[in-house]
Amino acid sequence: MTMTKTQRQIFKGTLYALVAGCLWGVSGIFGQIFFSTFHGDALWVTSFRLIVAGFFLLFISAMQKPMNFFDIWKDKSNLPVFLVYTVFGVFSVQFSYYTCIQFSNSATATILQYISPVFILLYFAIFHHKFPKKKSIFWVFLAMIGVFLLITGGNVSKLSINPIALISGILAAIAVVFYSLAPFNLIAKYSAISVAGWGFLVAGIGSNIIHPVWQVNYKISIESIALVLGIAIVGTALAFLAWLQAIKYVSPLVATVAAATEPITSVLISIPLFGLKLNFVTGFAMVLVVVSVILLSKAEGEG
């Protein structure tokens, strides 16, 4: 069966979002090894990954289109949107997510962040009076249930909720909405590499005010440097670049749900690497997420 142009775009966007989720999952494994082995500080990692990702993407941008390198700064009307994307999106999602981990644990932080599709639905309903189809809402919530089961294995005792963790986790979910919606017009005018690169660099400068990268509190070695570079390049620069490409073709709702491949990737890598046992609940949860993503993408393609 031949796909229409719209269906091809949705397929392309969904694929980019799936890739972004997988890269975030790989980055999560890097982070787990780094924190368990070297006991580094989460805020230091945030400052480092943003700065390195910014320079990495801007270097590529300068090589590709040197004459357009500063274009995003030439139009002053870009500044408000860019600052919203950078401050309330890029920086806030990193800072809030790691704050939630600090006051709870990674399972709690990930689940709270994955309520972001609900906020995206609310945004379009309140501000654009766009109400999704009932079956789209069904697939969104089914995917969220899958993520919950995948991370907890159905055991709620793995969650750790206190007021600070709850607030920071919800703020991380809201920040996902900002970095999904705010850059839409910017990436339509400029390259995704340029938008992401400048966003990371500016957010990284802000993050370094809170925790400078030169205040290192772990043992520097080839392994530790390789891990944090992996987090910065694979899990930040390349993952967010794939994400920005995704939202060019599909709605932020589909992209956010499709990026639930992050915990799936983490689980699959953890099986050979950490000896994680795959049980029925985990397997069922992965199937639930994958099926939900496919059917949500199909539902959007139907218009």
UniProtKB/TrEMBL annotation:
GO cellular component terms given for this protein: membrane
Chief place where the protein resides: membrane
Span of domain EamA: 12-151, 165-297
Entry superkingdom: Bacteria
Coiled-coil annotated residue ranges, if any: none
Region forming the signal peptide: none
Keywords: Membrane, Transmembrane, Transmembrane helix
Keyword Signal: no
Locations listed in the record: Endomembrane system
Residue spans crossing the bilayer: 15-36, 42-60, 81-99, 111-129, 136-154, 160-181, 193-214, 220-241, 253-274, 280-297
Bilayer topology annotation: Multi-pass membrane protein
Recorded family membership: Belongs to the EamA transporter family.
The name this protein goes by in its record: Drug/metabolite transporter (DMT)-like permease
Source organism: Lactovum miscens
